[in-house]
Amino acid sequence: MNAPSDISMKTDEVLRVELEVFRREHRDLDEAILALQEKATGDQLTIRRLKKKKLMLKDKIALIEDRLTPDIIA
Length: 74
Description:
Elements: H1 12-38, H2 44-68
Helix pairs in contact: 1-2
């Protein structure tokens, strides 16, 4: 992994900020996708690209949440 996206090199505080930014961007993409789908002339290629970006953000969010959530030994 390259250094800027390597979460192991970032502090928890930085990861929390990034997590909020990614969550906000994920919500914004969701709203944009819904708006395009409601229009009869919505560009399907654009919708697919936005959905792909939304999935990538979801993966990043999950990765950061896993890093921030402590392992609990049962």
